Amino acid sequence: MTVKQTLHAFFYPETVAVIGASASPGKIGHTVMTNMIGAGFRGKLFPVNPKGGTIEGMAVVRDIADLPRGLDLAVLAVPRDHVEPSIQALAGIGVKSVIVITAGFKEVGKDGYRLEQELKALCEAHSIAMLGPNCLGMMNPAHGVNASFAAGQPKAGSIAFFSQSGALCVAILDWALGENIGFSKFISLGNKAVIDEADMLGYLGGDAQTKVILGYIENVEHGEAFLRQARAVCRNKPVIMIKAGTTAAGAKAASSHTGAIAGSDQTYTAAFRQSGVIRVADVASLFNLAQAFSTQPLPRGPNLAVVTNSGGPGILTADIADRSRLTVAELSQRTIERLQEFLPSYAAFYNPVDIVGDADAKRYRRTLDVVADDPVVHSILVLLTPTASVEIEKTAEAVIHTARKCGKPVFACFMGKTRVARARAMLMEAGIPCYAFPEPAVRSIESMYEYYLWKNRPEPVYAEFPCDRELALKVVREHEARREPEIVEFQAQEVLRAYGLPTPKTVLARSSEEAVAAAVEIGYPVVLKIASPNISHKSDVGGVKVNLRDAGEVLTNFREITARAMRMRPDAYIAGCLVQEMAPPGVKEVIIGFKRDEQFGPMLMFGLGGIYVEIMKDISFKLAPLSRQNAFEIVREIKSYMLLKGLRGEKPVNFAALEEIILIMSQMALDLPQVWEAEFNPVLINHERAMVADVRMTLHLKEDRE
Amino acid sequence: MTVKQTLHAFFYPETVAVIGASASPGKIGHTVMTNMIGAGFRGKLFPVNPKGGTIEGMAVVRDIADLPRGLDLAVLAVPRDHVEPSIQALAGIGVKSVIVITAGFKEVGKDGYRLEQELKALCEAHSIAMLGPNCLGMMNPAHGVNASFAAGQPKAGSIAFFSQSGALCVAILDWALGENIGFSKFISLGNKAVIDEADMLGYLGGDAQTKVILGYIENVEHGEAFLRQARAVCRNKPVIMIKAGTTAAGAKAASSHTGAIAGSDQTYTAAFRQSGVIRVADVASLFNLAQAFSTQPLPRGPNLAVVTNSGGPGILTADIADRSRLTVAELSQRTIERLQEFLPSYAAFYNPVDIVGDADAKRYRRTLDVVADDPVVHSILVLLTPTASVEIEKTAEAVIHTARKCGKPVFACFMGKTRVARARAMLMEAGIPCYAFPEPAVRSIESMYEYYLWKNRPEPVYAEFPCDRELALKVVREHEARREPEIVEFQAQEVLRAYGLPTPKTVLARSSEEAVAAAVEIGYPVVLKIASPNISHKSDVGGVKVNLRDAGEVLTNFREITARAMRMRPDAYIAGCLVQEMAPPGVKEVIIGFKRDEQFGPMLMFGLGGIYVEIMKDISFKLAPLSRQNAFEIVREIKSYMLLKGLRGEKPVNFAALEEIILIMSQMALDLPQVWEAEFNPVLINHERAMVADVRMTLHLKEDRE
């Protein structure tokens, strides 16, 4: 059976057993029963308890073995030590899925962790989809399923929510009941021993009832699976997530909470951005976006039109929009003329359109119809201040009227609280997000526009460069065999050559005479660098001399460099000096590197050399594999990009050559999993060409990893 | 009579007349009457209307002349053309203050502007404090005053609110009624012809009923008065403001709205920060902070303790706090031991303290008491998730209990909506801000901590440097007389000398022989620069040569530079060349400049030369006069400050010398109002000394300004 079929049985069960069902109110085994009944479950429900008797009028099954074969779903609310035997018995009747509500596993320490691993192995051996342990349960209101011990029955809707925190499930459920928001699926993931966020994304991505997916996670279990599922799902529907534990304090709290390793915030930022997941920092934003995405169409461009009956809120909204990716666009001339036909002369006809404090509902409706009709406008925000003459509910009707027919996203902000309460409820009921203040409205529209751009971006193109992977692996394996974690200088140059990376002409000279011969071959001026596998920071031993113009300078400097290195690092093996071609004039230095993340694999970084990376922290990041588009972006996301583009008539650097080196590093990072981190530093680039002038690679030798 | 006495009569009137009072419901002149009566006004209220009759049982006064002499307050709701004659008549009976609700003045164009100027002159001539025109009115609920046509009577409280937008007044009033929030004073400023935000700050700063001042402004009328009042008031009580119209789109909307010039956002940011005003971007934050500041004591340090019954929300809170200026501090060992005495073993004892999902109110209370007792802790945030076993209202009581006795700020976040509604109301009633999600709670505590720091910062110290101001003014006046807007090179050097600013040794050489003599006097190597009052960008004509090492180089280059300048700029007067001492080795280049803001005066800027200012936009700003502390800060607020501090064992630059130059520029900017902008660029600085290597000043000649 495929995972998809199993998850279908899990979400749409026809037969459900509650193991540890109880007749005593307050017990979890009782709440699950009443929740299932209260949700209107139309399939067969079996309370199971060795004590027998009846629960809510149903005869209790004493033995799991008596349950029907091929049971769709079993919900376990039994003491911890009964969980494993129960699942053994359930496996015996061919159960398809289980929810383990019981706590006391990974989250309590080593013993619990071991028990959880046993459950996991058992479920995997029998292809049982297991949710939890240590979770609240799952709901599918449209199918009459509430297999949880949460208080309250949410209505059916088009929003799916999954959460690693049961407490957040509880809070959000209470909040959703208050706001009358419905769910397509509602899942408390618990410890994620079997079913994890990637499985949920995969299933919910194909679930016709789900229009928007919300998630709260503290860590990702399988980075690669998560990225693959997220990439595919975000093409079709929005995924909005909170990743908690992203700061030092948060990560510390998280690791004690679930034993999860939170991972670096940078990596998650890159993972979410590259897969199209919309990331929010707080729960309020999660819900604002859920309502926006589940009710309104996407704006097909950045132009926001604001219609208001008051100046101040209009200005505030324009400010917020101007600081966002949206544009407070000029309306077309035709629109302004049409507005002038009926609006009073003291109205403001450009955007925001201020129809003034005495505006009635009719004026709102005519204005909205004209503005919505303007092809320049991609989204509309209607502001209302409860002035004396405003018709609040009638204006809400006008907004609903326009929203229904215009095909563009329409949002409302009815300012205040008491007098606008009824109108706000009317708007929400009609699927028009309505806020008390302008900011969250603008933020929602901005997120939808960003998602529109992501959804409509061209299909990513991945390049493959010819390379001699075997040659590179040979160098790596030799280092592994010698237990040398650092691949530097001439061995590292081998790897560069294997990938066809452009490097400065370099010759290893074992003596000063060889150095002069090499310099003649390369052409003056040249660079001399100490060559030693043991000295990775060459400058620290005065091991680099640039711009040597003749044989005399080469001779003297060779002797000086090698003598100094031997004196300062008597332990090091000194092979001689590398003689290298000088960088062409007008060259710029950039750094291209990667570091492997435990969860998500190689993370590439790019920045300008020296102070820009070190002091100004002007660095951009992307996870491998990088598409051609990603390589284009990583170069342009730094502030100092302007320096590469060229100042005051200077020619831009050869960006194509630079992006190619980045793409080759991405390929190399995936080809050579033994390399834990690597840095091309500096990469020299001018308007003609780019070359990798120096490189360091660090292996993660087996023992180091454990 | 002083402004303060007049404003007292305005806010605490014993006699109030409503000019244009009406018996017809729906008319503004009727609403003002019913609002005054509804607010429980205990003084004498006079409806005035030439038609006579009665309104709400009161005899209408037909003629303003029949009102009592020395009337405290008159509220005008009459047609525009009647406003001026009415005020004339009111002046005749010695009215102390007026509110002009009537619109149709500055906001409608030139005619209105002229009329408004007449009102202003009239009021000023008779020392009448005028609010408006084009406003909603004013309220002082504790004194039974509601001199407005707004809907709804707010209760008395400790929050004062003034707003340039009447619409925002309406919205906020409705919101406050819904949230049961009271006001000490509530003022719609309207067009601010007489009473403006600076007057309000001044009055409310001394108003014993007001604990927190909120303001919404689109522009500041008098920058200097505003800064002076704000500085004084913020020492005593928090001032929280929105400045709208800070973006291009917002400013455009604002200028059409009230005819106000919005001013640059940068300047307002500097003005607010330097005077201690807490600036927020949106209305929701304005109110969150108002509640926090008006109910809780200030935290006396950054350490936030979080007590929670659930992990996820605890982690989210730790994340948010870690990204703020607050610290999720480690609790003291004694506290952890005390907690271990009664908390279950599976609780988390460090911060956030997770007392787990089965926590009852008693466990919350004991935990809160212990945590609040820890001297490490400066503020407390209590999180509650409505789990099955939680005692929601009882926990609210426990929070109130701890908050009352501990003397530290206590905030609550009861997550969800329906189940926590009652507890949330209880907390708010008891003066404990309670939020639905953690983010606004952390933001509020952070703002209070920042205000604590501001309030307790040392008194600013202003330095005064000896200078020959007359000499500087002489140079300026000569340029004014010659109508030359640019003061450059040797004239500019005069100004530097007048202020005792360190400059490189410089001699004007009229011939190549003079140049060599000067070079010998200064000492080789030297710099040669073309000297011409007409050439401000010397490099453009190849007019700068550095590092000239002997007489031969000086001779050749003098001839080359002057010949090239004559060829390229035949119009320019060439005085010769400046011979200048070379910058010492290891020198860094910084830029110190100022530009005069129409509202707030000279704004100083500081940054590292070249790319840092131009491309990285790494610049800091402060308004003059800078205190010594400000000079310390402006240097350290840029990212590239690290370069001045010195990398890799390099010595730090002489910061004292640098800060002195900045302070002298601040003094110069205030001394010489004719100078519109000036730039010391570059200022050369190393670990020993700083010197101003080049300078440009631009005058605003009279005609240019008009």
From TrEMBL, chains A, B:
Residues 493-529 form the ATP-grasp domain. It comes from the Bacteria. The keyword Lipoprotein does not apply. InterPro entries: Acyl-CoA_Synth/Transferase (IPR051538), ATP-grasp (IPR011761), ATP_grasp_subdomain_1 (IPR013815), CoA-bd (IPR003781), Ligase_CoA_dom (IPR043938), NAD(P)-bd_dom_sf (IPR036291), Succ_CoA_lig_flav_dom (IPR032875), Succinyl-CoA_synth-like (IPR016102). Transmembrane segments: none annotated. The keyword Methyltransferase does not apply. Pfam families: ATP-grasp_5, CoA_binding_2, Ligase_CoA_2, Succ_CoA_lig. One of its GO terms (molecular function) is acetate-CoA ligase (ADP-forming) activity. PANTHER family: 3-HYDROXYPROPIONATE--COA LIGASE [ADP-FORMING], ACETATE--COA LIGASE [ADP-FORMING]. This is CoA-binding domain protein. It comes from Pseudodesulfovibrio aespoeensis (strain ATCC 700646 / DSM 10631 / Aspo-2). The lineage of its organism: Bacteria, Pseudomonadati, Thermodesulfobacteriota, Desulfovibrionia, Desulfovibrionales.
